[in-house]
Records
---
Amino acid sequence: MPRYFTDEHEWIDVSGETATIGITDYAQGQLGDIVFVEVPAAGAQLAKGKEAAVVESVKAASDVFAPVSGIVTEGNSALEDDPALVNTAPESDGWFFKLTIADEGELEGLMDEAKYKDFVASL
Amino acid sequence: MRYLPLTEADRSAMLDVVGANSVDDLFAHVSREHYLTAPIEGLPPHANEMAVERHMSALAAKNLSAGEAPFFLGAGAYRHHIPASVDHLIQRGEFLTSYTPYQPEIAQGTLQVLFEFQTQVARLFGCAVANASMYDGSTACWEAIAMAGRLTRRDCVLLSNGLHPHYVSVAKTMGRFNGDTVVYAEPTLTPETDFAALADAVDGDTGCVVVQYPDILGRIGDMTALAEACHAAGALLVAVVTEPVALGALKSPGEMGADIVVGEGQALGVGLQFGGPYLGLFAIRDAKHVRQMPGRLCGETVDAEGKRGFVLTLSTREQHIRREKATSNICTNSGLCALAFSIHLTLLGEKGLRALAAENHRLACLAADRLAKVPSVEVLNEAFFNEFTIVVPGDARQLVRDVADKGVLAGVSLGRLYPDGDRRENGLVVAVTETVTEEDIATLASALEEALA
Amino acid sequence: MNAPNVSGWKPGTPEAPSGTSGITTVTGNRGLMLEEPLIFEIGTTETTGVDLPQPSADIARLGGLARSEPMGLPGLSEPETVRHYTRLSRQNYAIDCGIFPLGSCTMKHNPRLNEKVARLPGFADLHPLQPESTVQGALAVIDQLARWLLTLTGMHSVAMSPKAGAHGELCGILCIRAALEARGDARSVILVPESAHGTNPATAAFAGYAVENIPATAEGRVDLPALKARLGPDVAALMITNPNTCGLFEREMKAISDAVHAAGALVYCDGANFNAIVGRVRPGDLGVDAMHINLHKTFSTPHGGGGPGSGPVVVSEALAPFAPLPFVRKTDGGFELIEEEDGVEAAPQTFGRMAAFNGQMGMFTRALAYILSHGADGLRQVSGDAVLNANYVLRSLDGVLDAPFGGTGPCMHEALFSDEGFAEGIATLDLAKALIDEGFHPMTMYFPLVVHGAMLVEPTECESKATLDQFILALRSIAERAKAGDESLHQAPQLAPRRRLDETLAARKPVLAYEG
């Protein structure tokens, strides 16, 4: 299952037409302890680069953007009771939402793991 | 000047350290065209305490205060007896001169008080969560409407005709700017509230319905059925309480299904003060909406040694973090007034609040009965708490002025609050609290009899 | 993701230390540091500290809505009440205890004369809806204060009704919006410097505008070329603070205002920093169209642990017709209060009402007493000493703390520092918590956002040189420890009534009311 990354520190796993999206370990480290996550509802239409979710730490609220356009199939309900999952398992159980990809072409230009590692190193 | 500790020697030494010749040099970035080199002309120089006190006392003496006359004004601001301890405690420097508790380790006094206050308000209102205060009842009401708009994503607001007209005015002003449709009509002189009509009017476009309890004419309505109608239509019910002492006798709005309960806390601990500063109360019945609440919230936690402590929390809703996406722009609210309210309510306790409310109602009933005997005066209300409306022949506003000239503060005429029409110009709202004596009631009755003869 | 954790702050989970002296007590009290339970833990619903007549037989005129459910509101006797709140108060730092150097908050001494005159029954015991003939003295107070504010600012009119600074900001922006709509030129964008206080963009958004940031120059001021490039027919206003939140006077303020006006927009000035220029500069001379004044900042009304405040708004002649109701108007015989009905004729273009009743009268009496006490000469001295004190702190910390704009000349009433030079792993937060152990309330942290690890120090004019010297001494010591990487800073504060509190827990599992 290929995984891509954005320069806003989101990751996206692609499996056929479905994508799972979350934030990277680097991002959760920058945010500090996560206290609340607002995930989009099933059926929500997202546009690439636009706000999709909100993640809050004690002192900050940050937008999470949709890496690609699509329709949300599921928000991660586990985050409601346990937002700390984003800190402990950001790139697995701490996923934010899944969606049906509208346009596979939008995946072009996203970074692969190696490129993202370089990108983070340069920050 | 007694408030400025720096001496000339200090200034000299400090200017040396700073590397400037004079204080004026420190204003070098101000263009010479705009920099005033001498005190502004036409303004008096400094004055000592005695002179300032004399000046202010002379102005105070030009007013007829509530303690100097039989006093029956209410309409959203109430005169209750505030126990002497309250004012002493709020003047302790650690309360009076402290700041918003952003450094919780050295602000546990303020934070614990806020936690207690939030709990008291929530329990009084029959709600799950209350915030740490808003400016006053009218802005709390507007913020409730805004919150209901965020939750329902609808922009139609139905206001009861019993809502305080200043609160209506504020809601209309804000509605004008954010595109809400605000539906409202002035009250007519009937003894029933308009809750039934509102229940009929709620539909799928309604974001919220706003009622007042007791209302501006002193009427008391059961909002249970209205709450059900709102919920069936996907709308929220906002209840406004301008006299919190009433909840010592009456069912709470939360109990009857109101979703957001707001109010004016002035009646407890906070004096009349010619209109401010007052105390906005804001609570929600269901805790799940807490992240859409405006205002500060204080929460319980522990410190690094495991000791219980309190902190401001859920701050990401607020302006200093969320900036343009905040739930409100409110920053400074009404902390010291919240403290006064909390102290007064602690001194009363549940038992005292019930006794206070009963005494208010008893005296109000006495007054209503006595005024009903004044020729040509009609008491409108069948039910009321400590405030009711009487209907007089002729202009009630002029009547109030005439009676004031004789040293009696008879109440608030509806003409002061509304444009004429539907006989409102004949309406006079009379409030009776525990500060009113039976002698005062007799004096009021005589004054009205004389003026109406 | 945008802007992850700009402050660089993370809630810590320091190991519980043993305390400084290792002494434990049975009660948990430590000498004069007294633990105090909640009223819900010590009071009962049967206890009351007020003597009231016993309720007699049911009087049933309550429409069948009598309360039967218990409330759960505890009461305490008077001695217990006094003790409870006295003990709580002793856990608070306050201006009365020591310097409170919060940037842009202007924590100056709250004179007790103000408290005395505010409590005169002729002011305190007045109902807002009394007949006008019975409140002429109160209306006179409002009028006198208004005249002072207008003369000090050089503006045309003043709206006295806003309840606090943010409320005043909303008032000013709504005046601007009403004025633009009246001339058929509704615009959609408000420009805000990136260093602005959070209430500015929040207010603009609330008033229905899209908010865009204007960058700062390397000297910490508004970038005038960038501003000019952005101005256009869609811009309604610029919100600016002067002196700005970096503590610097906007030298090009008049040019900024001229550019904004030339583009058909208006200038809103956040008056939070008026203490720096009161009596020396009039915002009206700089082209400001509307400015709120925080009476609880420049004019000494007490902060009270979070309010109440008061935010009157001075406006230009162009905006005056749109100002909200109610307002006081002078007549031949005295004063009148213009409310909704009279407003139809007297203020046909008013944008409406911002709050019930007549404004924060209790703060007006206090502020007027303060102004009369200082007079024109005293107020000029206030800004002079405030600016001198801030510059003294700034220069005394040369080489100790990095001052990003220290090289651009004098600061105004507040000095801005950054965490440049701190060892890895030591943050502004740690320095602030260590200041608590030294007996000081920390300065404003992490604001303005344009400086990394910002520390904004505003001493005000009410601090003596001796106090400043002691504060500087403490800062110097802690800054050295920060630069040396002293890990014990993570344990601070160790001597306050509480150690660092778990804010993560409070946000993840909010407990907002007593549930026991």
Note: Strands of chain A lie at 3-5, 10-15, 18-23, 34-38, 45-46, 51-57, 61-65, 70-75, 97-101.
---
Amino acid sequence: MATDEFHHSAAARPEHVAAPIGSEEAVAALRNGPVGALVVASIAVALLFLGWLAFYFLLFIPRGSVG
Amino acid sequence: MAETETNPLRRPLPDGVVPEEEITRTEDHWLAIMLGVLGVMMGVMVVSAATNALHPPSNVETIDPATLHLGGEFAESNLGTAIEPDGSVTVRIIAEQYDFIPNCAQVPVDTPVKFRLTSPDVIHGFLLPATNVNTMVVPGFVAEVRTSFSRVGVYNMPCNEFCGNGHHGMWARVEVVSKERFPRLAATERTSCAKQ
Amino acid sequence: MQNSSRLALYHYWVAFAVFLPAVVLGAWQMLIRSPLPAPLDDPDAYYASVTLHGTAMAYVVTTFFAMGFGYAVTATSLGRPVRGVAAAWICFVICLIGTLMAVAAVLAGHASVLYTFYPPLLASSWYYGGAFLLIGGSMIWVVLMIYNMTSWKRDNPGQPVPLAMFAITATAILWAWAASGVLVELVGILLPRSLGLTTEIDAGLARTLFSVTLHAIVYFWLMPAYIAFYTLLPQAAGGRLYSDTMGRLTFIMFIIFSVPVGMHHLFADPEHGAGMKFLQSFLTFFVALPTLLTVFSICASLEIAGRARGGRGLLGWIPALPWGEPMVLATGLSLVMLGLGGFGGLINMGYAMNSMIHNTSWVTAHFHMIFGGAVVIMYFAIAYEMWPRITGKPLQSKALARWQLWLWFAGMMIASIPWHITGLMGQPRRVAAFDYSDPFVARMGPLVIISVIGGAILLVSAILLIVILVRSQLGERRLEAPLRYALAVNPPKTVPAALNGFALWNAILLVLMVFAYGYPIGQFFILKSKVPAYEVSGPTNSAGGR
């Protein structure tokens, strides 16, 4: 059973890595750089940014002045 | 073990699947975007600090905690709410283990309010939930917070810094009343809603 | 390698042996402050527990874990035994003695001052002495990390220091800078007063010195997790690290940006003016940068791994990743919590916006999410990678490890999201009991109860962690695969000296510290703000006399 085998990093046993696909496919997919990562990271940062603005203008400022 | 029989250095990916120049360029672009995002946030903070009077309370003023009750600004007769000549009010409160004095402060709505607090013993906190009034009360210093209340009502006032084993019992109130209901005070008169 | 392995293992065991009872305390604390009935409902016990939980999690678990991880990384990344093993064992003993002293003082009821121990509240000298031995003793570890890195560089001139070693040495240097605040506070203010050598203390100065430590310490906690992101995760996922340079820059940025910003913990304090507060808020924006850059770099590294495993399409690399690997799963869960926790952090550092949430439950929720969640889950993942290598006995079940990680994630989300909300509602923190008959407090009741459920799940997860590690310790099979660190997409042949050492960055940090803290600390030599202390020992504190 896969769950009870020796524990070690996936890359320690070559057959655990999707070698059949081969590195040429990976190189081709990455021809334009890590676009998928850009998408994921951009969405995350956009959510952070918009959330911060929402908190600032919808929660913080309505609570009144302070100084 | 299997991996020492096959070549342990077999890598599924060779070096350079993405050229280093491209990596550097991508990281630089991402850095520029991140600096831009942070810059906008910074700008929002700076502009709104100026236009909406939004600063963390930052009055630096020392006072001797041992002589608070003996006289001066925080003598008992001077605590509570006072009316200033320009129509604003000043509320003076002492925070000590484990109560605020007075434990109910009364202020008029839509009026500039200045809270001044100090402590004769340990650090306490002064928090009015649903507002931005939030300051530490540090013995040796006078904490000053300025605001204005736009809603009539009763505001809870828990101590929000650990001040000892009775900290959980240290709750007070601020009552914001309409300007008509707020008493007209002489220069030396003080008012509060604390139960005698 | 044997000696280095044993060194690392002993440190890890102290860390996790302290971790489990600390989680028990945390779960009990959550129950006590909720509307639910709870055993031993005593405020004195609560405040002692909060002190113990905080001291254990913030100082003991983290320091021992980092030291053990440092020795393990040194030996495995440099490929040779740790140098200075005798000093390392002396450091271990000193830190252990300090821990026992501090714990004993808290259990005896003489140190209920919380792990932030803000004077004028005064604890027993045993507590301060214990904290000093633990934190001060760990400076030996700092010296050993620097010594091991520099001696490797001397033996391998012109070679880039392996990224993992560079990063753990950066961690050590950061810790030295961070600890300086609390060490000066202990030696200069608290120990003299608690020993009766002085009669008054400056509460404002003590808080300011402590603020040097209070923010930077969270990066000391966080850096081992980031080391895992950069040097262990890409390998575990079967791919490569996108950029070795970005890894180095990240750790350098943490050194220079996380120390001179501590005053954002003092935004609500009356002993500093708006100008210095604004400056420190401005500098704090920069410490968000290494995390924002890391998020992209790690996603890119994962994308490479996912595509190498056949992931197609814009996001097809995500399901293609080996989520069965604890290191990969932990990273995914950690990044979610890092996003939420980081969001909270952006609120906290927003100058006046801090006033909305200062010293409310929001703050507690924030650091549980980001430290207890995002960082500590990576500590678990590191333990699952390290234990088999050190003991030669593999984890008996990867599935159980995955369960443990999922439970920790679920528990932390369920505990801390409602906690954030009660914070926004104005719930004060560090409170032993709430009057739930008061309508203002009653509104928070259901949210507090949900948090309690989260705490219970976390407790189950913590127990499971210990079970897994003990089973691995006692198992029988032998594993020989050494730890493999990730390779970069373009492994560097040389790196510039600025990315291979820390002299320049220490110098820059020194300038920044003078700039950011020079006046805030210097002013106390002019301000007359010394006050009497208040001891916490004894069954009850006397209420202030009026």
Note: DSSP finds 16 helices and four strands in chain C.
---
Amino acid sequence: MVISVKVIGVGEVDKFLKGLPKKTQKVVGKGIQGWGKNAESNFKLYSTKVGGRKSFFSGDLYQSIKWRRRGLSGFLEMSEAGFALDHMKPHWVALKKGRKITEWAVDKGLAKLGPGGKGITDIYPVTKKSIYVGPHPWIEAGRQKEFKKINRFINRELKKIKEI
Amino acid sequence: MVNEGIAQSATVDRTKLLSQSYANIYNLINTRSNIADPKGASKRTFVYTREPHVQGRGFSSELFPFIVLKKPMIDFSEFSVSETKSRVVGELVCEVYSSDEMSGYHKNKGNAYFNQIVDDLFETINNVTNKTTLRAYAEGGININTDDMDDITFNNKTIFFGRFTISFDLRMVVSA
């Protein structure tokens, strides 16, 4: 399946950076790349907090998070599941046999296994075969945390120049 | 503990630039007299070459604390006129993980163990003798910087982590 992705904002950042003096471009660019790689590792860790993860260093979302370089700056790429967890509208999900959410709901004690391996919840006034799920806004929280660190990486590159 | 695939410390040359530069730093960190395992265990793996699989349930209390030393990113610049020599700059990411969720005597000592490992790591990399030894292996200009230090909660368990960049900077023959 082909998925087209439109990355907004990277072009403007790159244009701004290319307007800086050559040496400053190099320093700021290197700082941003260092920061990006660090943000990639941290977002991987933040992703383990959402989606009912069982293991720490694994999972499709964990593996999908990558820092992609574009010119002097770059962007953080992740699977659609990451955005869905962050942005989705609250909705009902059927606890069908074999679904990870069924396994998770049973594990958390929110549902019990009914006939044929289907999950049945009994936390609502009426027994249902589905569960109500809402978003986990983890991207914005992580973004705010990470953006505070960018100065540190650029300053470190500046120090290297002073040493030379 | 011997880790499969990691060579003994030796001189870095153009034929084994990645493997040997990595092995020298790995062996330095994986020496218990340099960085002690706070648990004092001799048989468990303490320094990993990749992220280990950490199960959420039954959260392996045996695993924590541990260090992950990732592969170096090597850059070449400032080539000589003949293009046989170059400046080689390598950067390795070293991550330290610790957790309060350890069993028995070690319970709730995650933060103390984390601090102890990071102190030892800084001391080892900044140690003059270690720097001299690495320079003798053609891996000079070793330095350490902190990228990040934080804690996260995973399945109601606090995990302390620190990320450091260990760098080396040398000039060497890169082509015959």
Note: Residues 65 and 78 of chain A are 4 Å apart (CA to CA).
---
Amino acid sequence: MAIATAQAPSSYLSRSPNPSGLADVLNIILDKGLVIDAYVRVSLVGIELLTIDARIVIASVDTYLRFAEAVNRLDLTATGQQQTLPGLIEDLQETSANKRTKGVLEGAKESIFGSSDDEDEDDGGRKTRARSRSSSGSRSGGSSRSSSKS
Amino acid sequence: MSGFYVYGVTRAGEDAAPSRTGVGDTPVQTIERGPVAALVSEVPGDSVPGRARNLTAHSEVLREAMDGATVLPMRFGVLMPDADTVRRDLLEAREDWLTRMLDALDGRVEMTVSAMYREEVLLHEVVTEDATIRTLRERVRSKPAAATHFERIRLGELVAQAVEAHRSADAGAILDALRPFADAYVSGEPLHEQMVVNASFLVRRDRLQEFDNTVESVSAARADRMHFKLTGPLPPFSFVSAEEAAWA
């Protein structure tokens, strides 16, 4: 629709008429809509694991260590908050927003669907189960901040 | 064995089936019964794999269908064995409820709004605002990493709590600013620690511009701290009752 696409892109707001990418599609349609239980015929094992995985992550030791590392690296001596803007913002859009989403959701996407969309389904299911047992390990694979984790 | 994959329900006679193919690369058809109609496509087998391609097909068929019709989206993965079952168990058995829901959602679309913190700006706020965090940070920084494992966990936990407090306040203010332009809204759990808001709004089409303008001003006012994403117009995925028990 014209409304969603008419404005120029800005550094603080992205508009899209449709979900962009699988993570978006999952967020928007998963577990939503009318359902007639007797007729749901889909193997959603991997997708359910993804949502659990994405939601428990916030209160974990893994997150605490990552936060600790991030605040340790902060440079507070530079001229306060102005220093962080606006050059940093450009940088952050890459590292913070995109990469973190990628770290959590894209890692899961790979494990659900396989790196190739045409991969055999049964194989995708096994991968998902394997990943859910080692979620912290595969999460760090998506983040450049994992280097000092023990 | 084959079956009919069901995307959603519209009013009969609206001819909402899009030209694109659906799940399983088969054409999308309409099955009508009385005042309501189902958007379906015939698929082989007796289950639908939860694959990226199929999820996207489900979403895109519904999105195209909503251009010319009011659509009640089904949850991903509803497969009925034949057209008669679609008529009987979906359209006939639930006709009253479907009709009422179509009336209630007429002319309304879903807009999703998410916001993400710019992490370093947020952490800078957290550290400068909280003396305990600042002190603990200095102590951790002065020692080798191996000697501070538990202190680092404690520091991270305090930071996480402070982030949560920021999130709660920021999310409340954002939702308060956008709510007046929507008929309803649903605020979902943040999907990761940088997410401030992950919400869906049911917006009348004639108020979309107003809603968009407000998202613009809300996000511009927070440009130094957050990045926003606005998606839609979408079918009202979040505003149809998901549970069969609620169908009565």
Note: Chain B has a mean pLDDT of 92.
